[in-house]
Amino acid sequence: MAEFLTHAGLAARHGFFTRRGGVSVGAYATLNCGLRSEDDPAAITENRARAARALGADPAGLRGLRQVHGPAVVEAGDPWENLPEADAMVTRRPGIALGIITADCAPVLFHDGEAGVIGAAHAGWRGAASGVLEATLTAMEALGAARGRITAVVGPCIAQASYEVRADLRDAVGQARFFAPGRDDAHFQFDLPGYCVARLQAAGVAAEALGVDTLADEARFFSHRRRTLAGGGPLGHQLSAIML
Q: What gap in Å lies between CA 16 and CA 156, rounded to an integer?
């Protein structure tokens, strides 16, 4: 069965899926849900169907995006003919599962239980800095949500201890408090989940992080940085999804 984590702060059905419980093999073992990888397409389809069913959703109701590390948000409804280029989705339609794929970036799930509105966002440093989290809140408000009622959870992503960056990234983010000293004066350790939580809280919503490091936990999670440190090769992606 597709394995996933949950957080008590989200009342809607949701799952931060691990890499366990799928049918893919090799570097993609086993629950690779990445739509743009070179994995067997039939295996990806089955993996995503298993994840949907684990949440109690019809696999046909699982929506995905062509994620581009930007601030664009779309409303999910009827199936799309082509994947939208966006990094977040919102909906108020029951039975639709909003699915974000990650491999170190932060998956963020949102819920306003009173309004019956959910959201899901892919937030790497670039997307978070460009405002994708705040844009998701604005899109939820357009469907009747209120920031004072929204809860948000930052799922498994690369943790500060694992995320070494250079000064150019620190300067692009522009908030020194999220950077700890690194191995020398040219390197820093970036707190991506802390940065996402802080932006959400500053925007007026209750937000927490799951506190799971994708790079450090190879048994449960794919990691882009781990792959890079190993010299490259194929890369799988885990899924995070939420539905009404």
A: 7
Q: What is the tens place of the pLDDT at every residue in 162-186?
A: 999 999 999 999 999 999 999 999 9
Rounded distance between C-alpha atoms, residue 225 and residue 67, angstroms: 18
C-alpha torsion 28→32→37→38, nearest 10? 40
Distances from the Cα of 237 to the Cαs of 78, 89, 110, 176, in angstroms? 24, 18, 20, 30
Question: Helix 132-142 vs helix 192-202: angle between axes, to the nearest 10 degrees?
Answer: 40
- Strand arrangement, sheet containing 106-112: 73-75, 88-91, 117-123, 106-112, 151-154, 206-209
Provide the 10 A C-beta neighbour count for residue 182.
17
Contact 94, 218 (CB under 8 A): no
Contact of 112 with 49, CB cutoff 8 Å:
no
What is the number of residues in the chain? Answer: 244
**Which domains occur in the chain, in start order?**
4-243 (3.60.140.10)
- pTM, to two decimals: 0.97
